[in-house]
Amino acid sequence: MLFMVIERFKGGDSRPVGERFQAKGRMMPDGVVYHASWVDPADMRCFQVMEAASAESLEGWISCWRDLIDFELVEVLSSAEFWAGSRIDR
Prior knowledge:
Helix content is about 25%, strand content about 35%. It is of the alpha+beta class. It has a single domain, classed as Alpha-Beta Plaits. Strands 2-3-1-4 form a four-stranded antiparallel sheet, with no helix packed on it. The protein starts with a strand and ends in a 5-residue tail after the last helix.
């Protein structure tokens, strides 16, 4: 499953997140795959695409960052997957 992970840096401060990342890396559990990320500097948010068997599989990773980041998980499909499984009724 693919997830869009929306991270909001607590207090609008990205510095502690960057420092921990430099010291410890992503700290992802086995079975979780990082694909890509983008940062919105105006609102201090990060958008990441992650792959995991379930949302619960991401909990170990989230627990490493929860003190610095508020998380929102959205299960997503690629456009190709969505359209291949959709039936368009007219």
